[in-house]
Amino acid sequence: MHVFPPNGYNGHVYNGEGVGNYLVTPSSQHRGGVNVCFADGHVEFIADEVDRAVWWGMGSRNGGEATR
Description:
1 helix, two-stranded antiparallel sheet, alpha+beta, single chain, globular, 4 strands
């Protein structure tokens, strides 16, 4: 999910487990970021400090977001 940056928060948003409001962000044992596989098959290392607007844009299917 592209809500929080890599290696960020994982947990319930509100109302606990039974409601299903659980956010999971990509995480790895790699220091400083995660490896991300793109739809075209290439893999890139994305730093934990990636700009949030860029991170959200990478996870969008509609595009139009900033892609720095």
